[in-house]
């Protein structure tokens, strides 16, 4: 299950952040807003698309390469995330969202005897209907 504050969970379920989250433990390339790029393996992605990479190579606009064991990129600095060609984006999104669904409620909470009685009467009424 995705862990984070309410805003992070909203962004995860309502944007393509879930696709980036599904890329964890894969090697990817990120284009940054300052015309540089980073290649590396994603370790973590949070609800604001901040990405931590390991074994990363940062290439600046002049072509200089810098190697990092660990590198943190803020989400606001990311222009483009390159998705590997061998991944089906729709299937990946569905798998990621399905793996984070909550299961059915096992024991519903009954707050009072009045609610229990009303629920029981409602169920008897529904059962007596000819559908």
Description of the molecule:
- There is one protein chain.
- The chain is an alpha+beta fold and 131 residues long.
- It has one domain (6-105): SH3 type barrels (Roll), CATH 2.30.30.
- Helix content is 32%, strand content 29%.
- The protein has a 5-stranded antiparallel β-sheet, with no helix packed on it.
How do you describe this structure in short?
The protein is α+β, with helices and mostly antiparallel strands and 131 residues long. It contains 4 helices and 5 strands. It has helices at residues 6-14, 17-22, 89-99, 113-128, and strands at 27-32, 37-45, 51-59, 65-73, 78-82.
Write the layout of secondary structure elements.
Blueprint: H1 6-14, H2 17-22, E1 27-32, E2 37-45, E3 51-59, E4 65-73, E5 78-82, H3 89-99, H4 113-128
Antiparallel strand pairs: 1-2, 1-5, 2-3, 3-4
Tell me the fraction of residues in β-strands, as a range.
25-35%
**Could you tell me how far the N terminus lies from the C terminus, measured between alpha carbons in angstroms?**
39 Å
- How do the SSEs run, as a string of H and E? HHEEEEEHH
Rg is 23 Å
